[in-house]
């Protein structure tokens, strides 16, 4: 490295070392090892503007190896982002510091995504790159033309999500995607040879990626590799052979520098070896000034870009408009005229048929279950390798990658991704769903076959505990609509939830339509509402969701013949119900002494609704392989069985 670039890289190293040392917690090894590569990338190639971190045409820099977060925080501070001050860095890993232990997404800060679970950043990066391709096709390369760089480590490539995401990126020929592989051959347990003997070159070649090997501390090799990828025809990985903890006389190249502070004595030795004669957190004015100059180059780049953007500004803003109310009101009138029994997965398809025509930002997809999830409509165009003139992605059997990629698509700009799979496979998606919620991203998960109602595929495919598990995630809307009207209303709420992801759980089996009147208001907005009552004075409340609303109505009618009167409360979304006023909640929950819930799933979440004296009708074991009506009967989820138990409860 030239002296100037070595000094710039050392500024990253020592900010990282000092922050970890002060916090007495963190991972100094990666920032020390990748500082040279990061310096060359930011100085010569990365397109960014610290004065406008959300500039849509910036290059994206994603730190998939999130444990090395101090590399990112150092770069943002040094290049002049207002979001990261020196004081923030001094408070690394402390309460409410933006410099968290792993990068945590905050809009307009330069932190592009939340990474921590290894490999997630790789999937996010594929989503960023895919979003860029879609928007470039819509608005032209003069307006949208940028790259995504993702820094990944050995651990990222061990995680299975990396295989799923990289395979799809290669298939789609995302030549705007560059991975910087920190190939330091060290993990927390020790050398990666303890658990890995992959041939990375062959692995990436099989995905359809280009593979470049360099010395990650050799300036000429770094520059040459990064120059080459500017005109890449395929996604490219630059395998940077680095020394973890570069500069540490006793710990470099070892696991001890991976996830622990260097210690006071070793830190002093690093300063001596790298000729850094400055106190902790002190960056000499000359070096800091050079870094600020690097940050300022993006200001001019954006000014030049703005001239080209002006002609497309109105179209761009219209594409990202979030005005859905009128669209749904108009379509709701038509939908409430159709009373045919229909599976809610089919109801969802009806909704998507008009949404795809009206909402340009909507990008659909499925994990090889398009026909089963009903996520693909006649109005979709397929995104294909090298051809991004479309709005539907065939993700293949890659549920986890699909979810991580959708996070990247949502984070990129105003695009709205939705993707389908079976509800049972939400277990494969869960880490990414959790991050959608943590990052407050509008990602919509369409999950069909939502109960034992899928029948013969049996307990491996019949979700039981999944609804409870998903409902326990903070800031996640879990919708379970009962018919076509509720499905439409839930879709509207999912689209209007700008800072909350949604799961829409849908049936395989046909359901009777329970909402046969047109109401302008969105009743699902309340989360739980009175759907039916068979007398002014009642002594029973029946809570239900989704397919079990039909069953609840049947139970209510049969009980009325025994002079037991009830109201049926549809509960399409507990998250929305929890946001209602105490007065409204009391009206729904406390009108009657006797309460029951009916849902063909775990009863956990219903116990708080029915209280100690109520009854929960559900499934707290695994399902059974059988035609769905037989399965419901086996678990006592029939009107006759439920009526008998309710009669016994009330008479006692």
Which characteristics define this entry?
Rossmann fold, 13% strand, 3 domains, 5-stranded parallel sheet, 652 residues, 6-stranded parallel sheet, elongated, alpha/beta, 18 strands
Short description:
This protein has 652 residues and is an alpha/beta fold. Helix content is 43%, strand content 13%. The strands form 4 sheets. The protein has a 6-stranded parallel beta sheet, sandwiched between helices.
Give the overall average pLDDT: 97
Q: Which fold does the CATH topology of the largest domain refer to?
A: Rossmann fold
Number of alpha- plus pi-helical segments? 25
Number of strands: 18
Strand content: 5-15%
Unreliable stretches (pLDDT < 50, length at least 5) are none
Gross CATH architecture of the largest domain: 3-Layer(aba) Sandwich
- Structural class, please? alpha/beta
* Morphology call: elongated
The Cα radius of gyration reads: 28 Å
Q: Span from first to last CA?
A: 84 Å
Q: Determine and state the CATH class of the largest domain.
A: Alpha Beta
What strand line-up does the widest sheet have?
9-8-10-11-13-12
Total domain modules:
3
Helical content stands at: 40-55%
Major sheet details: 6 strands, parallel
Looking at this structure, what is the CATH superfamily of the largest domain?
Thiamin diphosphate (ThDP)-binding fold, Pyr/PP domains
